[in-house]
Amino acid sequence: MPFPYQIKIKHMKFFCKSVLLLILQHQGFAQTDSTIKKSIDTIKVGNITILRTGNTDSIASFKSSKDTFRIGGTVVIISEGLDRGLEKIRIGSEDLRSSIESLKGLKTLVKKKPKKYSTNWFVWDLGFAGYNDQTNYSSASAQNFLSPVMGTNFPVTPPLSKNDFALRTTRISNFNLWFFIQRMSLIKQVVNLKYGLGLESNNYFYKTGIKYENLQYETFVSRSSGTINKNKLVANYLTAPLMLNINTNPSNHRRGFQLSAGISGGYLISARQKMHIDKERSKVKSEFNLSPWKLSYIGELGLGAVRLYGSYAPRAMHQDGVDQRPYTVGIRFSY
């Protein structure tokens, strides 16, 4: 008797569980619609109805005035006003695309019409300074500057030569700071006039121990013996350049090729010689027989954002004695 009784209890538990599962399924998924076949399960979220079935013929036979959207042939989403919402999204995306294209066109229009004037502030250069020595060392003026007679009680200094003015070319020796460089359009921003104002600083690092001596009425050069750690002559000029500029890409000067050539006029505002020989250091400020004015041919070559500059003075930087014509070359940092 106990064994059949236990079987009945197990059957009763199974029956109760099945009924409970059917009730939960009915409450969660099966919401009746008169137009939908019984083989189709439904889920409602707000005004959206999701139909799920494995029978595509059942979905194809479904008729409704609502909007439908198929996914993979097995799911149908029905929502009131879905087509109107999608249409609004489409129109909005087209309006956004049109606005973006209009902005691009405006940007292009702005690029095609550069300003007549453009100014670069605080442009600076780094490069090398040297000179082309064309001195005739056998001339009387050169020998007087290099080896003057100091009186009967002083021996005559042996004549100096071109080797005494040899320069160290492995150090940065030219630094320029331009307060501004302005460009004015002459012909459609292709042909321009460039001008500015700034400071030029030329440093001449000597390999030897030559020293500028200042007397009451004259200046001459003498030799210094010992171990030379530093010997340089510094000449600073207030300079105004004037150049004709050719720009191949007026709308974007960073991508175009630029060529400039012209002249510059400089005025000597200060000069000094700084020496460090053995343990002795000296720093003397004077004009050192330098010419107060400097006229130079100048040029600039630009490819995109990279610019090279150069200058050459056709006249000597000293007033007399030696004929040394200064030049500079280097990189210009400008936007």
Order of helices and strands: HEEHEEHEHEEEEEEEEEE
Q: How many β strands by DSSP?
A: 15
Largest sheet: 8 strands, antiparallel, barrel
Low-confidence stretches: 1-7, 27-38
User: What percentage of residues falls in helices of 4 or more residues?
Assistant: 10-25%
What Rg, in angstroms, do the CA atoms define? 45 Å
Q: Mean pLDDT, nearest integer? A: 78
Structural class: alpha+beta
Proportion of strand residues: 35-45%
> Could you say which overall geometry the principal axes of the C-alpha atoms support?
elongated
Number of helices: 4
Question: Which strand order does the major sheet show?
Answer: 5-6-7-10-11-13-14-15
Terminal Cα span? 104 Å
List the defining traits of the structure above.
disordered N terminus; 335 residues; single chain; 21% helix; alpha+beta; 4 helices; four-stranded antiparallel beta sheet; elongated
Question: What does it look like?
Answer:
The protein is α+β, with helices and mostly antiparallel strands. The chain has a domain at 115-333. It is 21% helix and 44% strand. It has helices at 2-28, 56-60, 82-111, 140-146, and strands spanning 41-45, 48-52, 67-71, 75-79, 117-133, 174-187, 191-205, 211-214, 219-222, 228-247, 257-277, 280-285, 293-303, 306-312, 324-333. It has an 8-stranded antiparallel beta barrel. It has a 4-stranded antiparallel beta sheet with strand order 1-2-4-3, with no helix packed on it. The protein has a two-stranded antiparallel sheet with strand order 8-9. Strand 13 and strand 14 form a beta hairpin. Mean pLDDT is 78; it is low at 1-7 and 27-38.
